[in-house]
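Case study 2.
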Amino acid sequence: MTRFEISQTDDTHVVLGKLTSPYGVKGWLKVYSYTSPMESILEYPEWWVRQGETLTRISIVQGRRQGKGVVVQLEGVDDRSAAEALAQTDILMPKEALPKLSDGEYYWHELEGMVVFTQAGERLGRVSYLFETGANDVMVVRGDSDAIDKRERLLPFLPDNVIIEINSQEGRMVVNWDPDF
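Prediction:
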């Protein structure tokens, strides 16, 4: 295992999931995955695990879908007490290790924090986070001090319908959205 210190404001990594709790007595851990599909998190042979301000690089020995979740056995984690020591820690990956996307595709972490404007130029706020629904992804846009109000809005992530423009360089997006919704 390789360890190094990072600051909590490090923006070179993205959180892929969380090691939640031990699974059995042989060092396996339950994983809460933010990837879609959830077992895609197992496609990365090494993870960075954050404990406080320390990141530890650790290899996956094996992992699998288990019921409604994912379980994993990590290198050097051979018993329940070692697994307990890693419970409730974040799983990170360097951003540059993520697969490259096609034009018009975005990772959620790239959209979070973007400033959102209507087509009329009204500032609605910033993208706080996104979540999945059965029909489409949804952006949570929270009004900030420069926005037209402090409201929180749920906007469907529908490119070419609701999402008119995304400018990654400027950190802004334009939406077809009535501010009164």
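Residues 80-86 form the longest helix (7 residues).
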